[in-house]
Each structure stands twice: as C-alpha cells, then as structure tokens.
Specification:
single chain, 473 residues, alpha/beta, Amidase signature (AS) enzymes, 8-stranded mixed sheet, 3-stranded mixed sheet, 17 helices, 11 strands, 40% helix, 11% strand
Amino acid sequence: MSFDQRDAVGTAQLIAAGEIRSVEVVQAAIERIDRFDDRINAVTWRRDDLAIAEAATVRPTTPLSGVPFLVKEALCATAGEPAHLGARFLASRGWTATRDSFLARRFRDAGLISLGHTNLPELALSPTTEPALHGPTHNPWRLGHSPGGSSGGSAAAVAAGYVTAAHGNDMGGSLRIPAAHCGLVGLKPTRARSSLGPDHGEYWWQSATEGVLVRTVRDAAAFLDQLAHRGPGDPYHTPRMHEPWLEALARPTPPLRLGVFDGGTDTDPAIRAQVAQAAEMLERAGHRLDRVDPPWLEDDAAWTAQSTLFVAHVAAELERIGRLVGERIHPDDVEPNTWFYARMGRRVDAIELIRASAEIHRFGRAVADWWSQLDVLLLPTTARLAPPHGVLSPDRLAIDGELRTDPYVRFTLPFNLTGQPAISVPGPALVDGLPVGLQLVGPWGEERALLGVAAQLQEAFDWPSRWPELVTS
C-alpha cells in the first residue's frame, strides 16, 4: 500500500519514522486535487505554496503531525482566509476571517497541514452540496449524485483520496449524511465536546458540533483527541475522557446492550438489509441485541419546535452577516431556499422561541429516559441512498423542503437535538455502486463505546480497502 492510501495516523507514523516527508505527502495530495477536482468540484480555495512551506518545517509531535488536511468553510476560520459560508453575498465582497477560531488553532497545533477549503451549501443549510456560489460537488462513487451535505465537499475530497481527513461540522446530520453517501466514517461528538469560540458560544441553538470525515475508526479517535477542548469563556463543555480515545480504542470492547432499529418500511430495503447484517455480526461478537422501535422518532412536537428554532436561526444569521459586512441583505443576495427560511424566521416571536427551546429540552429528557436500558443504538444513517443532483437543489426546496429532505435527516437530526454522540460508518457492501451508512448512537459523553463497536464493524466489513472506480482506474 502506498503512503497516500494509508489513514491519517498511519501517514503520520511514516513521517515520524522518517520513511517519508510531510512535503511528499502534501505534494501528492495537491497532485490528486489537480487530477480529479475538475470532475468532483470539492475544493473551493487552495493554499498550495503555503502548505508546502509549512510541511517543510514539520516536527512530529502528535499522532497527526505533517498530515495534509482540508477545511470546510464554516465555523473553523483562520484569520485572513476566505470565510464565505458557501454564500455569494460574502464571496462577492471578498470577505475573510478576522481572527482564528479555537478549533483552527487546535488543528494547527496538531501539526495538520491545511491545503485549503471545501465546498458546502449556502450557510450549511442543506443535506446536499449544490450551492449557487461554486456549483455542485459530485459524489466520487457516482458522478452526478450528491455527496451529502452540508460537509459534502470535505466528504468527497476524502472519498476521492485527496486527503485522509477533512474538517466538517454537524448541525442536523452534516457529518453523518456525507459520511453515509461517500463511504466514510463521520463522528458527531457529544454536544460541547469542542469549542465553537471565540465567535460563537453555540450555533443553530445547541445543535452544532465540530468534527471530521475520515476513512478509519482509528482516525476518528485520533481527531477526537485533538477536537476535545474547552475554549476560554465557553458557556458549557463536556469533560473529556481521563485517557486519550486513541489509546482507549486499543483495548477490547466489552459486550454491550445494543438496540437495533432497521428504519421501518419507509427506508430503502437494501439499507434495512445492511442494518440487519451488521446486527448479526455484532451479536456474534458477543453483544446483546434488542429489536426496538423508538417512539420519539415520531415526536411531532419536537420536529415543530426544531423547525421554529431553525428558521429563527437563519433569519438571525442573515442579520449577523449583514452587520459584519455593513450592508443589508436582500432576496437576490441569497438562494431562494435561504430567503424563504429567513422570511419564516422573522415571524417567530420571543414567546415562540422560548417554547420551542423548552420543547427540545423535553424531547431530550424523553429520549434519555427511553435510553436507560441501552448502551448503543444501531440504525440507518439515512433512509435513502445518495440522490442525483437536483433532487435537493436549493431552488426547489423552498416549496416542499421538509418532504424532500426528510429521508436524509430523519435519523440524524434527533441526536443534534439531544446532544448525544453518533457515528456513521459504511455498511457491508455497495448498493448500485453507492455506499450505505450505518449509524451508532450512544448516551451523552460515551464516544468510547461507539468507537469500539465501529471498530468491530470495520474489521468485519473492511471498508477502508474500498475506493471509487473513478480514482483507481
């Protein structure tokens, strides 16, 4: 296996051992972007020369030192670099970040070498990546299909082998949906596991969580060790483990109580079959399985409350961006979907907002009470495979967006509302050439159990050996 096909931890080990140089790995990543990105359209801004210069000075000090990396252009900001959030309004004004986010500093301190930024839907509002600003990102497994969203550019870049890992974040499934569609590992850590500072205490109410798209569970653990930190002034934080997650992953996973939900009759039968296959494998590994049908997945009051908070956030975000730039944002400045949501959000009054927040807290307590007899829940990541471009395009969602997006967010969004950790990993096999995502969810703060079970699935299904034909032919 060549070094550019290893995971991030394996690549860093070769660099630390002196078998390869970080500069070589960075140059190989740049060459892959040059070769494939005119067809995939995952990368929107590049810093090739700076990356090569930084790689030349790498000193191995962490499990990720010297590894090339890409950053989603949302929340994780570096002073002086573009900060457009996928929005034409900001891009047309050449808007750049005025200071580093705490997370950007953490990535830099980990020795990661940023190659640039990845594509995303406008303001990260969609489970697909088809922005008007940069055009659609293609799924490397099948061009013309969505890589998911909103971290779709990062997922496509990792799936195509540009880099072994790329930054993303998750407000309603934005790490897990792209992971499912692109055959990757996407961990949404526990709420407040990492800092959103200094610009945000929370984002999208309490739903936003930072993370990465990777190919192996080992990498997910290594990056969680870097992500987990408290920034000065954070409103709340989840304490990290007493030992590194990467070290904990090396120990055997004990038998656990696993709940299994196949998604129900509205889920693609091929996806349901892969959930069943994964459950059988985990039962053979010694876990105790219970078939469950979570009643809170049909909690209409929680979905209504989430919609209220969502549209209010979009309205507030447009107002915030306008203040940053010193201009009023008009309908023609943003995509139809964005303006539609913002217009709805301006109608939300303070009482509605407080009621919606209280409803989400009620929902979280109900889910936690239901969870008391389980360690981990296994269910689909999405109810459908990656759709063709156009199905979720921003000029069509404003009219019937909830109906169109429901099959892609119904199994991910609940855990943004509760704050629980959740990870999407690839299923046993491709379906019509497209990956399937299996989701594991744990109680608050229990990423260790998720990583252990995910590692067992990886050993059984060997998804890191799979590559899209586009990048191997």
